[in-house]
Specification:
There is one protein chain. This protein has 239 residues and is an all-alpha fold. 77% of the residues lie in helices and 0% in strands. It is elongated.
């Protein structure tokens, strides 16, 4: 697991660098644009709280697909030759992908905080905790979905579909209250919604409710499903 986490920090710049670059451009230009085009609306803070959470999605999806692709037969045989179990291999891959995703959103949080969020250190740490739970949820979900794809070349399709659903069926761009009642249960199934709501509550000072608890539960569920999916993939390679 330490190897995967270290690789996420030091070696996966091909995944994190594009996310950080495009995310920084989006944060700077959109916040400036909303402040200028919609002055006194406060929407720049609404956008920033959503984008801090969303910025990790593509990196998390890419890292999850990379983890799945990395479980080729030769790689699995090498890993199994070490004193590890399939479950340990799966968990290390999942955690490495989650760290990759967290790096991107952490940079967005560091940029957005002095720019528009203005969180205290304590609140920033709570926001970071929410981002960690979200990363585990997203990576676990994508790893679970990846098992359904028999043709490895189709993994990009899973990534595109997951990105669209996570982005638009959530409160990334607008508060959950603006959506019609029939859509809200769907939106609240999305872990991004809870992460965004946690950060948004910290910024606005509004009650957080059970958002953090819901996000923690989602992370446990999706990590369990994703880890099981990857460990079964490892076992299939050995048959």
């Amino acid at each position: 697991m330490r190897h995967e986490v270290r690789a996420a920090i030091l070696s996966r710049w091909n995944i994190t660098a594009p996310g950080i670059f495009s995310g920084t451009l989006a944060m700077l230009t959109m916040v400036h644009g909303y402040r200028t085009f919609l002055p006194d609306s406060g929407y720049e803070a609404t956008f920033a709280t959503g984008y801090v959470a969303y910025a990790m999605v593509m990196a998390g999806i890419a890292a999850s697909i990379s983890a799945t692709v990395d479980l080729g037969l030769d790689r699995v045989r090498y890993l199994i030759s070490l004193p590890v179990t399939p479950g340990m291999i799966a968990m290390s891959k999942l955690c490495g992908a989650a760290v990759t995703a967290v790096i991107v959103s952490t940079v967005m949080l560091l940029i957005g905080n002095p720019l528009v969020l203005h969180l205290s250190l304590a609140d920033a740490l709570i926001a970071f905790s929410a981002l960690v739970c979200q990363a585990l949820s997203v990576v676990g979900l994508v790893c679970c979905l990846s098992r359904l794809v028999k043709d490895i070349t189709k993994l990009g399709l899973i990534g595109s579909l997951a990105s669209g659903v996570l982005q638009y069926l959530s409160s990334v761009y607008f508060p959950s209250s603006v959506f019609p009642p029939w859509m809200r249960p769907i939106i609240y199934l999305n872990p991004l919604t809870h992460a965004v709501n946690v950060v948004r509550s910290l910024v606005t000072g509004s009650p957080m409710g059970t958002e953090m608890l819901s996000l923690a539960i989602a992370s446990v569920v999706f990590v369990g499903l994703g880890s099981y999916s990857l460990s079964e993939a490892v076992k299939r390679k050995l048959i």
